[in-house]
């Protein structure tokens, strides 16, 4: 398989080419630096064309038609001249439904490409809404990119209409859909689209990205595992410069060692760690409802437990060479003692964020 990608230096092109290279698919590229003659020669050796090249913000509106429509016609002519049924994916725009020069130029390009179907050339047209993800240029054609870049760099953002609803698709989903077509998956070609498509109001988008920024201070993470929030978070991080890759967290030192909170969630607790010097005991309390998981990652520990109503006791000895989780159980007081010869390091998860007004932590000797 040999794929030609036009607009290969663009946002979608860069992401697509990375994926095609991962799949060991041969890729040729066409950019503004290439000539029409080069385009014709490239198409002769091509099995599939992904046509991404386009003009988004020209100084002169006439360039919309020159690039978006003119280049597309050149591709059509070259495909016809090659006498090959070279399949074509075209990244059109949802703006074809609007009365503007950009939308009209994309619609004209669609018309030229669909004429190829009359001579048996497979054509796949995707009317993409806003596409967001890593490597999209800020202050160009994506408000997501602009907001992510500005907010990550503590620059102001302008929200003219907070209630304006955006339609968005994520770059990885776009690439996945295009690769699916390249790999020969049969599709109904009436209305092609990238799924899932997301909707979010402009004001909500700005607020959400600011929450990402502020999470480094609050330590509270959003639900970033999947869905729109997860994809926006990945996009936000992609605008960091290397000097922004790390950040400090607060830590608390005393004679026993160090305690530091690492990460908090809105509904699934928090993660922290602590150290203890040899012979030091930490804890000595119980919880009515709070639960915890402990993991000794360095050293040796003795966990002591005492039932607060039955006076029953229990001990567990743990060392970091045999990784085990120790859970605290409501109604049992507990402590942990460093019984080794070096500092002990323990990871800790609690099922709720610590609330100083309702700590659910009652001192009780084990």
What does this entry look like structurally?
This protein has helices at about 10-20, 35-45, 60-80, 100-115, 145-150, 170-180, 200-220, 225-235, and strands at about 1-5, 25-30, 50, 85-95, 125-130, 130, 165-170, 200, 220, 250-255, 255-265, 270-275, 280-285, 290-300, 300-305, 315-320, 325-330, 330-340, 345-350, 360-365. The chain has about 375 residues and is of the alpha/beta class. Among the domains are: about 1-130, NAD(P)-binding Rossmann-like Domain (Rossmann fold, 3-Layer(aba) Sandwich); about 250-365, Sandwich (Jelly Rolls). The strands form four sheets. Strands 9, 10, 11, 12, 14, 17 and 19 form a seven-stranded mixed beta sheet that branches. A five-stranded parallel beta sheet has the order 2-1-3-4-5, sandwiched between helices. A five-stranded antiparallel beta sheet has the order 16-15-18-13-20, with no helix packed on it. Strand 3 (about 50), helix 3 (about 60-80) and strand 4 (about 85-95) form a beta-alpha-beta unit. The radius of gyration is 29 Å and the shape is elongated. The model has no long low-confidence stretch (mean pLDDT about 95).
